[in-house]
Amino acid sequence: MESVTSPPIVVxxxxxxxxxxxxxxxxxxxxxxxxxxxxYPASGGLIAEHRAVRSACGLFDVSHMGDIRVHTGKSAGxxxxxxxxxxxxxxxxxxxxxxxxxxxxxxxxxxxxDVIVHRLGQDDFLxxxxxxxxxxxxxxxxxxxxxxxxxxEELSDAYTQLAIQGPRAVDALRELTDAHLDGIKxxxxxxxxxxxxxxxxxxxTGYTGEDGFEIYVPSDVATSERVWNEVLEAGKDFGIxxxxxxxxxxxxxxxxxxxxxxxxxxxxxxxxxxxxxYCRMEKGxxxxxxxxxxxxxxxxxxxxxGLEMIERGxxxxxxxxxxxxxxxxxxxxxxxxxPTLGKNIALAYVPPAMTAIGTTILVExxxxxxxxxxxxxxxxxxxxxxxxx
Amino acid sequence: MAYPTEYRYTKxxxxxxxxxxxxxxxxxxxxxxxxxxxxxxxxxKAGAKLAAGKIFGSVESVKAVxxxxxxxxxxxxxxxxxxxxxxxxxxxxxxxxxxLVKVKLTNPAxxxxxxxxxxxxxxxAEKQKEASS
Lengths: 389, 133
Hints:
The structure holds 2 protein chains of 2 kinds.
Chain A: H1 18-23, E1 27-31, E2 34-39, H2 46-55, E3 57-61, E4 66-72, H3 78-86, E5 99-105, E6 111-121, E7 124-129, H4 134-144, E8 150-154, E9 159-165, H5 169-174, E10 189-194, E11 197-203, E12 212-218, H6 221-235, E13 240-243, H7 245-254, H8 270-273, H9 289-298, E14 303-309, E15 320-322, E16 328-338, E17 343-350, E18 360-365, E19 368-375
Parallel strand pairs in A: 3-13
Antiparallel strand pairs in A: 1-2, 3-9, 4-7, 4-8, 5-6, 6-7, 9-12, 10-11, 11-12, 14-17, 14-19, 15-16, 15-18, 16-17, 18-19
Chain B: E1 8-9, E2 14-19, E3 22-27, H1 29-35, E4 38-42, E5 49-50, E6 55-61, E7 65-69, E8 74-79, H2 82-85, H3 89-92, E9 101-105, H4 117-132
Antiparallel strand pairs in B: 1-2, 2-3, 3-9, 4-6, 5-8, 6-7, 8-9
């Protein structure tokens, strides 16, 4: 007789701020195995949260993100060599205190995950990874750094990660820290006291297309709740609201930032995803490089484009794209109304011949075919100050 | 928000009310709250026939599409065209100006299987208890 095993009961994981979200009346969803707030009716809901981040500031709990530290083994240089081997950007170009967008690739040149690599020290790196891919990523890093003289440490559960995003984020955070925030450039970080917590990592990074910071504080519930509440209190004068994953998604989509499982995945390579800016072929060997060389020589079969709906309808992840003759040519990876633009926008993979701005593409929305056109991306770019500070 | 006692409700969160032989159908306050900001409504075109328990349209929030099921069978009399321009009416007045369609029922006996306001409120109270546990 065959033995029958019942499927494991999967209880969604909770961040240390779960009770806070529930007290605030957030609508909760399961995201990548995590019980997360999708929007806060008390903040006015998704669209109001989105607008707050574009015009003032918003606070996000992003503690579900994972963190992996790769640092020196017995002799210096091992961590650098390991990070160079497992990521596609050039970590040797980072100064201490600087971060870069990068990705870990399979030998096929497709994505294990996208990561932010922070250079903490001469031979010391922090990789911030996605929530849904945590276990896979840590196993991948451990397996592929075996031949290197370095230590790999998973710190995901050690940190509560908060994102304070928007043009007034700097003003809100300034109230709570002794760090000289204006001295931190985009994609740089420092360590300072935040809410009385010494040596807190403060990075000028985010996933909204807006200026902002991500801070990493100890993950015990008391500290996490205290910092969350102090940030909301300090941000009051600057229009801060608590923001959920719904706004996080529409904000990142307008800024054309990739989401794992949508624009990037184990089936999509770097060239298709249009992330060549972050892939440094000239740095030397790294996992995926050889396949990317071949793929480049072979030419692109599909590429990521931005779409704007012309006819009424909202393109969603997985909807088919057709040409005007009605032939299937591609697929939508993300789509949503854009609160900033007041239009329905989407990202889609289509053949390279159909990427010219203005090209008509039909999106199959249930039983209807709705016209869309290829537009320039990002859909939204934040206004830059006249003088860099 | 109170659930009108003269309405009947489905477990898929639609309501229906009959007046002078014409039924008006919409989605409940609970449904609009769960959806969040409604940004798009797709309704049947003139001549459409609704079949009880079958999809007749969809409502989209920023983040998702939800299909709407007919509480009872009938021939479309009118769809609420004002929702094209102002889909947010579904959030602000789901039991009134946010109505979706008016139909002439072809089998009014179907209404007897629907929930009354008290039963529907008990049903959503149970759902809310599950969600907060």
